[in-house]
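User: For my dataset I need records formatted as: sequence, then structure tokens, nothing else. Please produce one.
Assistant:
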Amino acid sequence: MPLFCCGHCAQSIDADDALAGTEVGCPGCHAVIQVPACARHEPYQPYQPPAFSQTQATSHAGHSDPWLLRAPLLGTGAAFVLCFVKKLVEPVSSLDAAMGNVGPVMTFAGAIGYTLAAGIFALVAALVIAGIAAARRKPFSSTLARSYGFAVVAFALLMMAGALLQPRSFAGAPSSAPTSPSSSQVTENTRQELNKLQADIEKMQQGEAPGIDAAPAKPPTTPAEPPDDLGKFLLISRQYFEEVAALQKAYTDDIAKIGFLRVLDGERILKDTDSSEAYDLLARARVLLKKYGARMREAVASLPAKVRASNISAAAREGHARSAEKGVAEALKTFDENWALEASAVDEIQTIIDLLGRRRGKWRMSKGLFIFDDEGDLAAFNASMAKITAVVARQNEIKEQGQRNTGKMFDDLRTALPK
């Protein structure tokens, strides 16, 4: 008896041999089918896809490369160690030593900076190598990971080798290597820049504007740029202090120009019967205070940005900028206190003007002095004058402290220069 399957529903059918070659109805789907005249067939079995193990599935999905993460991580870690060693053995710059930018924290921060620099160069090199590999039908990701891991270590090694080849020269300890004539000239130029910068700062602290008081006989020429990084930093600093000093001089000139220095002059007050001139002077002085206060504060805060925008070498630029930030932070505190004192002096002058205007007829002038008929008026006048005197005394203290700090800083910088 032939055993066959329905071609429509795969129903197994067992037919008599006598029905071979005839048409019958399928008991499953009732379709008309022909009984084959052949040997017995095995029942129809639906197709089953071959089973794959989890390992086979992973293999077909793609090859997993453990070095995709391992190579970059190991390479970056090794590069950081090399950069940390470089930071330990490289010579300390004179400016960093004078400014106190030394110690474990600065060493660690410097190592991170060097590692980032090595990583950037390594990534660029690895991308080039991986691109070439991809063009030759090799895996891009694996090549990129391995190339970066090797490249970042190579760049860190180059940095450390450069540090080892430099003479080790710390602040106050001259290098054992003989100083060439060109190095001596660089040191002398740096020393001259230090002297010029100190002279400018001292003039500014005395209320003078360096280099702008007298008209030059010929147009000023741009000073030659020093060849070394410290000299360049000092030149930038000198130009910066000249800018701040010029604003300070412009403020004092404008205050004098409006006549504010005579606001408490007895003869002027006697003629100013309704105090209108005095109040006008006070208003104009406050406008100048606000205008120059904003401009001078912005100028004081600009030194780090000037350093970062300069052509100081990339290796030294950020260190000089951080030194500038430390100095500017202290300078801004001093400036804010000094400017607040200036504003408080103007307020006390207005208090005196208010008193003299309100009590006009109750006081008189004698030999340039105010003589009050009322003891209370005299006490109020003396209290305001005492506050103004205290403001002037505090401003002088700030000036003297600034002069002492400036002298110490320049002494430290000169000591740090090679002999």
